[in-house]
Amino acid sequence: MIIALAQLMVVLDATIVNIALPSAQRDLGMSDGNRQWVITAYTLAFGGLLLLGGRIADLAGRKRTFVIGLIGFAGASALGGAATGPGMLFGARALQGAFAAVLAPSALSLLTTTFTDPRERGKAFGIYGALAGSGSAIGFIAGGLLTEYLNWRWCLYVNIPIAVAAVLGAHALLRDSPAQKGARLDVLGAVLGCGGLVSLVYGFSEAEPRGWADPLVLSLFALAVVLLAAFVRWQTRAPSPLLPLHIVKDRNRAGCFLTMTLAVIGMFGMFLFLTYYLQVVLGYSPVRTGLAFLPLTIAIIVGSTQISARLLPRAAPRVLMVPGTVLAAGGMFVFTRITVDSAYASRLLPGLVLMGLGMGLIFMPVFATATAGVAPRDSGVTSATVNTSQQVGGSIGTALLNTIATTSGTAFVAAHLGDAAHRELVVREGIVHGYTVAIWWAVGIMLLAGLVAGLMVTAKPSARLPSNAPVPESVG
């Protein structure tokens, strides 16, 4: 529970400030062009530094880095909550992301080493998968409640008591792993890998306001390709590689990484569109918007803890992952039918439940399978690789699908705005049309995730592994 609590804090912080952002923008005087950095600064630092954080956890000891990550995250949250200007808030969010990059891999590595019994491991991964999958939705609920009844600053301050409780619990309950002797940190690999990921994530974040053909966006993508290619080449020669390539060469592991990336692309796009649909089109308050995501959260928890955790010891991972992607895609298909006045119970609720159950079936098997057989010295960096898949997938999904939605919506308005008297209705219809076009893309991407899982993830049920087989490692 201590590990799950820390992971929940990290995951929900990617979205908890979304609903609070309008209030923070007014309070601190942010421009419309700069407000995106409240979100992007966190995801950039988190996604770009995860591999380095995972290797630090392996080298320095997981419990130690876990506690350091918690304390640093709480300090950065306090700094952000006390922000007196936009720059101070942006910097605090980047600092949160940096400490999250240390915290998340060490948390998952501790989960691996703490739970060795197959049944207990299944329960632990079920809870962990539920929190990882539902944390973003919980962030929307918490953000709405805190913003409406307290203040936007409490969306950051709330991390402090959570971190304190996790630190106390870690000291009392968790066992530390010994630091690796004689191992060195791959500094060049860290610069190349982190630089490449930051360039990639930054490029996608800038594609939305600037456009995909903008010289800066194209330059960032080109730089990302060059740096990541150099990173892969260096990892074949480095004496102590940041990411041992045997981790990603394994068929099952690579399939899990790719499945996670594709699934999260669709999921993060849904969070973005539904939040704006509920508040802008249907006129929901922040609290009502947050509560509207509650069925999704419950469905993810049920799918992870009551279905996946019970079936994974007896079923091959892809037997859960493939139906999960089909269910999630079915939920997204329901969202393609929304209009400017859709009823929540008939149009949104069925889609949220289907999508939640599907994501619950995807996340838990991915976490439990992706690092199966990884040596203990590599568990931190393997956990970081899956966390990176999530963050990069979320960044790509937000940028790609939002660009599609904006372009389609603008074209719809231009084609239908013949009568100025109906301008407001046409604009709202254009917004919804853009969302539905992008959601169709998300459906296709989610089904592609299912195809990848079905073809690449060939691992057997964990209960049938030979008794001397390595215990499956965890994945963030």
TrEMBL record:
<feature type="transmembrane region" description="Helical">
    <location>
        <begin position="66"/>
        <end position="88"/>
    </location>
</feature>
<dbReference type="Pfam" id="PF07690">
    <property type="entry name" value="MFS_1"/>
</dbReference>
<feature type="domain" description="Major facilitator superfamily (MFS) profile">
    <location>
        <begin position="1"/>
        <end position="462"/>
    </location>
</feature>
<protein>
    <submittedName>
        <fullName>MFS transporter</fullName>
    </submittedName>
</protein>
<feature type="transmembrane region" description="Helical">
    <location>
        <begin position="290"/>
        <end position="312"/>
    </location>
</feature>
<dbReference type="InterPro" id="IPR011701">
    <property type="entry name" value="MFS"/>
</dbReference>
<feature type="transmembrane region" description="Helical">
    <location>
        <begin position="216"/>
        <end position="234"/>
    </location>
</feature>
<feature type="transmembrane region" description="Helical">
    <location>
        <begin position="319"/>
        <end position="340"/>
    </location>
</feature>
<feature type="transmembrane region" description="Helical">
    <location>
        <begin position="35"/>
        <end position="54"/>
    </location>
</feature>
<feature type="transmembrane region" description="Helical">
    <location>
        <begin position="352"/>
        <end position="375"/>
    </location>
</feature>
<feature type="transmembrane region" description="Helical">
    <location>
        <begin position="125"/>
        <end position="145"/>
    </location>
</feature>
<keyword id="KW-0812">Transmembrane</keyword>
<feature type="transmembrane region" description="Helical">
    <location>
        <begin position="438"/>
        <end position="457"/>
    </location>
</feature>
<feature type="transmembrane region" description="Helical">
    <location>
        <begin position="94"/>
        <end position="113"/>
    </location>
</feature>
<dbReference type="InterPro" id="IPR020846">
    <property type="entry name" value="MFS_dom"/>
</dbReference>
<feature type="transmembrane region" description="Helical">
    <location>
        <begin position="151"/>
        <end position="173"/>
    </location>
</feature>
<keyword id="KW-0813">Transport</keyword>
<keyword id="KW-1133">Transmembrane helix</keyword>
<dbReference type="InterPro" id="IPR036259">
    <property type="entry name" value="MFS_trans_sf"/>
</dbReference>
<dbReference type="InterPro" id="IPR005829">
    <property type="entry name" value="Sugar_transporter_CS"/>
</dbReference>
<feature type="transmembrane region" description="Helical">
    <location>
        <begin position="185"/>
        <end position="204"/>
    </location>
</feature>
<keyword id="KW-0472">Membrane</keyword>
<dbReference type="InterPro" id="IPR004638">
    <property type="entry name" value="EmrB-like"/>
</dbReference>
<keyword id="KW-1003">Cell membrane</keyword>
<feature type="transmembrane region" description="Helical">
    <location>
        <begin position="255"/>
        <end position="278"/>
    </location>
</feature>
<keyword id="KW-0046">Antibiotic resistance</keyword>
<feature type="transmembrane region" description="Helical">
    <location>
        <begin position="396"/>
        <end position="418"/>
    </location>
</feature>
